[in-house]
Amino acid sequence: MKHDPDPPVAVAIHRLADAPNPTRKRWAYATIVGCWLVTLAINAPGHLSFDSIIQLNEARTRSYMGFHPPLMSYLMMLFDTIAPGTALFLLFMQALFFGALLIVVRMARDVSVLTPLVVLACCAHPFVLLYQGIVWKDVLFANFAVFGFALLFAAARLRGWGRYACYAFSLLCVACGGLVRQNASIALPVLAVAIAYLEFPSLSLRAQAAKFLGGAVAAVIVMLAVGSGTDALILASAKVSPGPTYGMALVVLGRYDVSGIIAHNDKANVSVFEKRRLDVPLLREDADRYYTPERLDWLPKRFLEELRKLPREEFIPAWGQFAVDNFGAYLRHRLEVFHWMIWPPDITHCLPLHVGITGPPDVMAKLDVPTTLRPSDRTLAAYTAYFMPTPLYRHGSFLVVAVLLCVLLPLRYGLNAALPVLALSAAGILFTLTWTLTGVACDIRYMYFLPLAVFACLVMATVLEAERAAGARKPAPPHIPGGDRHA
Fold first, then answer.
1. At what angle do helices 415-438 and 137-155 cross, to 10 degrees?
2. Global pTM?
3. Residues 151, 172: Cα–Cα separation, whole Å
4. Which residues, in sequence order, are bridge partners of residue 441?
5. How many domains, in total, are found in the chain?
6. CA distance linking residue 222 with residue 31, whole number of Å
7. pLDDT value at 473 more than 80
8. Which member of 8, 36, 273, 404 has the lowest number of beta carbons within 10 Å of its beta carbon?
9. Following DSSP, what letter does each residue of 408-448 receive, concatenated?
């Protein structure tokens, strides 16, 4: 009589074949930490531009100008209190992005030999090597969001309280990201809907609608709660309270749209401004002469002053009516601005990089921050210049990759397995599309979340492929004693 293999031995073989490869994981960890140390070393204490200096001044004086969302300045204040300057804040900011990659590798059941190679390739791109060293709210938001979706990736592999803790912390991180960049809150409902799909996998049409609605409602509740909490902390320490950030941003956007509509239609219907006794010939002259889809900075002071004659509560509805009355011109203006943002004809006009420390001289003197440009900064700028003429430096390329990830990964790995990657890609796409309505300049940093999301998704994709391959290699379950005996 032929006997079956000893069941304990079969179980041991089964577990060994299903175990992750520790060497591959160690290489992935080492690559992420090595890239982090290099990025930190060549950029610390951080590159600061005009906006960075203004926010550092807000942090130290605790007086908020109102245009920048105040949460980033508040965080800078906390770190500046511990160690004056931006080095500690830079460490915190980078820890979000590189920590997200570490979480993905840590929670993976297996990683691919490609994982460290993809990490290395992504981190060699200036969007990581340089931009992770620039103290910008765009970078902070992107890092917060990527970290939040990495926690979603972890939650999909956990059970019990650990899973729900990851959900809660991921929502908190993405909500904080939405509070440092005016149009960044679009990522939060995507995350909330993804969590609803993970927890309630029913495929009925009614269940699908409930998940979308529930995710949207949850996102609003979380954003209100986190926003109220952070506002209370900021107001408790502020000497000059933040102004109406979103209202100010709407006014700036509206003035740019007015100039764009007039520039795209010589016979634009301007009755909404004539009724309010504005100098319409002046508006036409300046819009025709100074408007450019690259950015709003070139609009002259007298054009802006003329529109300032309307108070905010009157200007915003007038801008909306003007856009409706001249919708064709508005659409051409918006599409041209978005074209400059997604694939600029001349990228040098779009602030493609920033190195060193520059800002308003009087503010820098008050902060005791010297203007600096180190030899390493020049080398980093020269390295970045090699990428700038290529599609690797165009957000349009990353938009195509993000769409492909959304389509191909669920087909290959299934919706549930690919959901964290799908959600992060979708958040990057939707955030990018918000600029069709809100773009006011083609600065590369404005869409920074998109390439960073693609980089994180590519790393996650290598993990999904490794886990899929490990599942395919898994041997058949061991025989049950007495279940298949024959003479």
1. 160
2. 0.90
3. 11
4. 295
5. 2
6. 35
7. no
8. 8
9. HHHHHH-HHHHHHHHHHHHHHHHHHHHHHHH--B--GGGGT
